[in-house]
Amino acid sequence: MTQPHIGVLALQGAFREHRQRLESLGARVTEVRLPADLAGLQGLVIPGGESTTIARLMADYALWAPVRDFHAAGGALWGTCAGAILLAREVHGAPPQFGGQQDSLALMDLTVRRNAFGRQVDSFHTPLQVQGLDTPFPAVFIRAPVIERVGEGVEVLARHAGQIVLARQGRLLASSFHPELTADARLHALFLDLAAAPLPA
Fold first, then answer.
1. Which single residue of 26, 126, 178, 185 has CA 20 to 30 Å from 119?
2. Tens digits of per-residue pLDDT, 126-183?
3. Buried (b) or exposed (e) across 40-73, using 16+ Cβ within 10 A?
4. Which residue among the candidates 81, 90, 148, 160 is catalytic per the annotation?
5. 129-145 residue pLDDT tens
């Protein structure tokens, strides 16, 4: 089966690592920096990084509405770490200098808390049981958010220490951790399947 054409938002953060994982699976990948870069894509990865910086750059490059429109037209979205924050309908823990508010796409029925697992020095690796995978996934958590609440249509795929860290809602996927920072490409393969799936009639 021909792999779908996937974009990786390439404004800040670990976008190169996502591109490498996707290309290792045979996907065609485009780095997205402008609205025109979304044309012809079936999926878009929003990488980890600094969510407030990515949000500001999305505003600078007029990407907010085009990304929402891309999803409304059937495009799949995957947010990892900071990207999960940007997908969430509600975000807690934004810095005081931003008035405690975090801009987001508000597409996924989640409440996410920023930096819930601590600072950079509190980063850790852990084997994670993921629904649909036969063996644990080697998850990398770096200043990771946690999913505090999921809506009725959201499927929880993994938890760590009782906290939700991976969830799916239709053609939306959110992970608190950094799957691109491991050689294990199984979650990238899952996203490719999501992006390639036919749209509901």
1. 185
2. 999 999 999 999 999 988 889 999 999 999 999 998 999 999 999 999 999 999 999 9
3. ebbbbbbbbbebbebbebbeebebbebbeebbee
4. 81
5. 999 999 999 999 988 88
Which element (helix H / strand E) includes 109? Answer: strand 108-113
Residues paired with residue 46 on neighbouring β-strands, in sequence order: 79
Q: Mark the binding-site residues, compressed into ranges.
A: 49-51, 114, 142-143
Is 81 one of the catalytic residues? Answer: yes
- Compute φ and ψ for 38, nearest 5 degrees: -80, -15
Binding residues for L-glutamine: 49-51, 114, 142-143
One of 18, 71, 160, 180 is an active-site residue; which one?
A: 180
Given the candidates 3.40.1190.20, 3.40.50.880, 2.60.120.10, 3.40.50.620, the CATH classification of the domain at 5-196 is 3.40.50.880
* Mean predicted lDDT score pLDDT of the chain: 91
Q: Which two tokens stand for residue 177?
A: 């951790």
Position with higher pLDDT, 35 vs 114: 35
> 155 is written with which tokens?
């499927």
Residue whose pair of structure tokens reads 């009639």 in the numeric block: 201
* Catalytic entry in 18, 71, 160, 178: 178
